[in-house]
Structures are given as C-alpha cells and as structure tokens.
C-alpha cells in the first residue's frame, strides 16, 4: 500500500527564518509528486509537480526538490502570508490516483 | 473564470436525512473529483469522473454515497441516509486533462455536520 508521511506536523517560524518541510513516501512506481497549499477554510491550491529524482522547481520563496524516497519544500525568508498547511501527494502507476499526506501546518510570525 | 463552485458551503443535518452536495467545475475541464477531508484521515478521494463518466469510485465509503455528473458543468454527491461519521469537509476539484497527472483546481468545500 502506498504511504505518504509529512513532517513535521506543525512548524512555527519567525519571518525571515528559512526552513524545510519533508514528504517521504513508500510507493511502487512513482509517476509524480505534487505539492499543494491549503489556507484555512479553503480548498488546496496547486503549487508544483515533480516527476523524477533530482528535479527542482521554484516559485517565489518556495523551492521543491525530489529524491527517490522523499521530497522537500524549502521556504526561504518566509513571510506571514506563507502561513498555511502544505500538502504533498503522490501519483503511482499501481494506484492510479493521488495519495495525500496529512500535511504540515506552517505558521510564520513577525 | 470563477473557479470551481460548490454549494452549499455549510450543511448541518440530522442523522438519517438525505444530503446533496453540488459542484460546478471549471469550464473546459475534462476531469472532476470528489474528496473528503477529516482531521483523522486527511484528504481522501471518493470518486473520479472523466468526460462525465465515473472512472473510479473505489473510494466511496458505502452504498449510502452516490455521485452523478449529468453534464460537463454539474455534479452532485448524495449521502442517504447520513450518519454522524460522515461529518467532514467535502471538496470538489476539476482538472484540464484525463487522470491524475494534471494539477487539480479545488473548490472552497462544503462543511457537513451530521448530528
């Protein structure tokens, strides 16, 4: 069975304090790994898709990387508006559907 | 585009009642997904439609749940009869391609409370 684990469950950072969120997975035949951002009371919002180990993608203060066992979402010099829950999801050939992790709740304070 | 539209945003009902959740996907999107989100289990896929046809309903919990997509601009998720354990936030999402390889655009969700 495909498994996706995100850590930490919650993270509190001060503005400007860079950090990384982790998404580790145990799957057969990874076809893609997705990162979404979810604000309270809203639906998830797509951020990135990574397809193969070594791939990196960036958007503003966010950079996503992928290895054969995990993905990192690096947040550089975060701002309070980066506060949200970040979800990762994996797509595998065997499951043919997305399996979501339970997310990391990020809070960025002034 | 207004994005994915869901109604109602909140629904409170008593156990045993029928509940119908509605979704209007983004125009031109071929795929539609219904998800359920709870604190304990996170985000779970219930059913996936492509070109209005149900492709994968293996996530539908039991026969009390049913979903339809009569046309490209409308879908419903029905629970009959509802139970307290159905309390969750239900999301509808659409995507421009077939399957799960494309980014999905989520609606704001319907928060369902069954008492």
Characterise this structure:
The complex is a heterodimer of chains A (about 110) and B (about 120). Chain A is mostly beta strands and about 110 residues long. Chain A contains no helices and eleven strands. In chain A, the strands form two sheets. In chain A, strands 2, 4, 5, 9, 10 and 11 form a six-stranded mixed beta sheet that branches. A five-stranded antiparallel beta sheet of chain A has the order 1-3-8-7-6, with no helix packed on it. Chain A is globular, with a radius of gyration of 13 Å. The model of chain A has no long low-confidence stretch (mean pLDDT about 95). Helices cover about 0% and strands about 55% of the residues of chain B. Chains A and B meet through strand 4, strand 5 and strand 9 of A and strand 5 and strand 10 of B.
Task: Based on the model shown, name its key terms.
heterodimer, A: 110 residues, mainly beta, six-stranded mixed sheet, five-stranded antiparallel sheet, 11 strands, globular, B: 115 residues, seven-stranded mixed sheet, four-stranded antiparallel sheet, 54% strand
Q: If you compute it from the alpha carbons, what radius of gyration of chain A comes out, rounded to the nearest whole angstrom?
A: 13 Å
The succession of helices and strands of chain A, N to C, reads EEEEEEEEEEE
Taken in chain order, the helices and strands of chain B follow as EEEEEEEEEEE
Compute the separation of the termini of chain A in Å: 41 Å
Helix and strand content put the structural class of chain A at: mainly beta
Beta-strand share of residues of chain A: over 45%
Most extensive interface: A-B, 20 and 20 residues
Structural shape of chain B = globular
Count all strands of chain B and give the number. Answer: 11
SSE map:
The complex is a heterodimer of chains A (110) and B (115).
Chain A: E1 3-7, E2 10-14, E3 19-26, E4 30-38, E5 45-50, E6 56-59, E7 62-66, E8 70-75, E9 84-92, E10 98-100, E11 104-109
Parallel strand pairs in A: 2-11
Antiparallel strand pairs in A: 1-3, 3-8, 4-5, 4-9, 6-7, 7-8, 9-10, 9-11
Chain B: E1 5-7, E2 10-13, E3 19-24, E4 31-38, E5 42-50, E6 53-56, E7 65-71, E8 74-79, E9 88-95, E10 105-106, E11 110-114
Parallel strand pairs in B: 2-11
Antiparallel strand pairs in B: 1-3, 3-8, 4-5, 4-9, 5-6, 7-8, 9-10, 9-11
């Amino acid at each position: 069975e495909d498994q996706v684990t995100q850590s930490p469950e919650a993270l509190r950072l001060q503005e400007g304090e860079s950090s990384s969120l982790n998404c580790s997975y145990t799957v057969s035949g990874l076809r893609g790994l997705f990162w979404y951002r979810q604000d309270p009371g809203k639906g998830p919002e797509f951020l990135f898709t990574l397809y193969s180990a070594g791939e990196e993608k960036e958007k503003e203060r966010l950079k996503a990387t992928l290895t054969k066992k995990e993905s990192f979402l690096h947040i550089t010099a975060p701002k309070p508006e980066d506060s949200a829950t970040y979800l990762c999801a994996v797509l595998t050939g065997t499951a043919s559907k997305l399996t979501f992790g339970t997310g990391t709740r990020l809070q960025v304070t002034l | 585009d207004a994005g994915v539209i869901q109604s109602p945003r909140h629904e409170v009902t008593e156990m045993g009642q029928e509940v119908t959740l509605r979704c209007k996907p983004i125009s031109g999107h071929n795929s539609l997904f219904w998800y359920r989100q709870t604190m304990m289990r996170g985000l779970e896929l219930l059913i996936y439609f492509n070109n209005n046809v149900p492709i994968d309903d293996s996530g539908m919990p039991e026969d009390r749940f049913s979903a339809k997509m009569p046309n490209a601009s409308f879908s419903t998720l029905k629970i009959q009869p509802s139970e307290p354990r159905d309390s969750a936030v239900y999301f509808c999402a659409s995507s421009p391609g077939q399957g799960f390889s494309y980014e999905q655009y989520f609606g704001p969700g319907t928060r369902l409370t069954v008492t």
